[in-house]
Each structure stands twice: as C-alpha cells, then as structure tokens.
Amino acid sequence: MSTLRNKVQLIGNLGNNPEIITLDSGKKLAKISIATNETYKNAQGEKVTDTQWHNVIAWNKTAEIIEKYLQKGNEVAIEGKLINRSYEDKDGIKKYITEIVCSELLMLGGK
C-alpha cells in the first residue's frame, strides 16, 4: 500500500499549449493545465457538467515529449504526485499553489 501514498491519476484535456522553460542547467520544465469533466444530474433532473482544472509540471524527457507532441485540446492520461509550494508575487503577497508532478504520461486519442 505504500505505493498509493501521494499518487494522482487523471485523464483530461489540455486547456492551453504547453509552457516550456529551459533552465540554465539545460533541464527542461513543461507546465500544462488539464481539465477534467464530471457530468451528473441535479435535483431538477438537468444535466450538469463540472470542470476542474489541474496544474501539471513535468521535467526532462517527459517535458521534451510534451514540447514535441502536445498542444491545446489534446487528451492525455497522467500519473504523478501532488506538491504544494508558495512564493511571493511582485507586490510581496504570498501565493500558494498545488501542482501535480507528472511521472508518467500517456497521449490519448488519434491524430
């Protein structure tokens, strides 16, 4: 059961084109946003779709694959772990962010 600790699996669509950052060390970082949808019927029997957005980052070889093959709208399956971090914005206000660090990526849907 220890492999279940801090494990995330999602299937969704990219909400925008990947943001690729190449660090001074040569390492690549890819940032993507994935939308997942859940559909249900409300109390009035109307169909409701709830969309959740997830921030995903990937490093090195996975980032290179994302850079080369993915674009807005593509469907992907990802596996990774949750991380939380904070930073100060330009006005000195502390911001908190939760991201998924992608360890596995599967491109879904045909071209």
Structure description:
The protein is mostly beta strands. The chain has a single domain, classed as Beta Barrel (OB fold (Dihydrolipoamide Acetyltransferase, E2P)), CATH 2.40.50.140. 9% of the residues lie in helices and 60% in strands. Strand 2 and strand 3 form a beta hairpin. The mean pLDDT is 94.
Principal-axes geometry comes out as: globular
So, the CATH homologous superfamily?
A: Nucleic acid-binding proteins
What name is given to the CATH topology? OB fold (Dihydrolipoamide Acetyltransferase, E2P)
Overall number of domains? 1
Q: What is the string of helix and strand elements?
A: EEEEHEE
Largest sheet: 5 strands, mixed, barrel
Tally of DSSP β-strands: 6
The Cα radius of gyration reads 16 Å
CATH architecture: Beta Barrel
Approximate strand percentage: over 45%
Low-confidence stretches: none
Q: What distance separates the N and C termini?
A: 37 Å
Q: Summed up, what is this model?
A:
The protein is mainly beta and about 110 residues long. It contains one helix and six strands, in the order E-E-E-E-H-E-E.
Keywords:
111 residues; 60% strand; mainly beta; 6 strands; OB fold (Dihydrolipoamide Acetyltransferase, E2P)
Blueprint (SSEs and pairs):
Blueprint: E1 8-14, E2 19-22, E3 28-41, E4 47-59, H1 60-69, E5 75-88, E6 94-108
Parallel strand pairs: 4-6
Antiparallel strand pairs: 1-3, 1-5, 2-3, 3-4, 5-6
